[in-house]
């Protein structure tokens, strides 16, 4: 059976070819799997990688003072919890909780700057959450002051923030522009009233549009909007309307995330009635609907789940095959090292991941003792670095160039990956998701929807993992 499409299309239409997905294929490929914002994924992090190990990595990073840095700040607060939310958030209306948190975040930034010892050049600077605009303007300004005291945001840097249009004021937007923020990412998810009720997130279209227009008038260069497909009570028709509304607003980028339904990790998702969640064929239809409409509206597909206007930097990088991906998402500004601050933030420094503790009390305790609040991490070995390069190429640029990998890692691709190539031939290649040639691998337009499954073939840790306990959301 072929999934029905929104309107008749010719076979030459790449989007149409991508839809030719049978129920049988779905049942074979729609299974739990990582989204590969990192490789190895965070489930491999362990407590043997501790504060001392992190300090050692930072000292090594400090030996390259001119290399660019990425800096991520996690601002976890929200006033109310959306029941679909899978992020690390702290729900409170008590403003003093954030005041104390910021005091410690300032201290952590000072500690980081000290350990990096003069390495200050930042080319990618993100505030994520939670909801960074939960903070009062004065708190935002004070935080940015601390950052710029310790680090130099480079001209042309990617300076971005996640904003929830329900709580963001024009005063905050004006301040962000003054502070040099040029990119906004707005959470929308869905405008359909019954869906909004089902996920405890009431967000009228008019107020979102008004804030969007205001942001444009203030000169934000790049505005992204987040949507989620697979939310309870979404239908093809309802989601089609949402997509058309968004396409009409003309954001520079749109993320169309697959709903990660992980109630065993995020208890708030238990409030959603599982019977209302579209799965399998019904879920994929939603993505296909969004993809068709965004492509028809002049957007190009970026990586697995993003769309961008052709003039956008991401679209240009994608066309040139030089897109990158890190914990902040797809980017055109790869820095050799990424440092994170705030609870649960993840850094990627000199070949090691390091994640901060998630509990406020533990975070404060560590900083009171002058220690980095590291909970766990992972140091990559040579095989991890190689597989990371392969998986990143697949997720970003939908291909792997054999010669490039051989040159970078000094090995012969085919013998090294003989097991993976056999597995690909028997599965994803036979199903038309990927082609295997002398020059390497190429994910087909139809395979883009399944790129997580293709990447999973190269994931050594996943292979070694027991499948008894659910860890990841489903791939489709
Ligand atoms: C930190 S939140 C966004 C910022 C802001 N708090 C808001 O909600 O507008 C980042 C994005 O993660 C996505 N997200 C959150 N939970 C998700 C889930 N369970 N599955 C897929 N995407 C999710 C949403 O699209 C959300 O906009
Ligand atoms: S989706 Fe955004 S506003 Fe809602 S709980 Fe998650 S972080 Fe907070």
List keywords for this structure.
single chain, alpha/beta, 9-stranded mixed β-sheet, 3-stranded antiparallel β-sheet, 19 strands, globular, binds S-adenosylmethionine
Architecture overview:
The protein has a 9-stranded mixed β-sheet, with helices on both faces. The protein starts with 13 loop residues before the first helix and ends in a 12-residue tail after the last helix. It is globular. 39% of the residues lie in helices and 20% in strands. The chain is an alpha/beta fold. The structure holds S-adenosylmethionine and iron/sulfur cluster (SF4).
Estimated radius of gyration = 22 Å
Number of helices: 18
Number of strands: 19
Approximate helicity band: 25-40%
* Ligands and ions found: S-adenosylmethionine, iron/sulfur cluster
> How do the strands line up in the largest sheet?
9-10-8-7-6-5-4-1-13
Structural class label: alpha/beta
Largest sheet: 9 strands, mixed
Low-confidence stretches: 1-18
**Arithmetic mean pLDDT:** 92
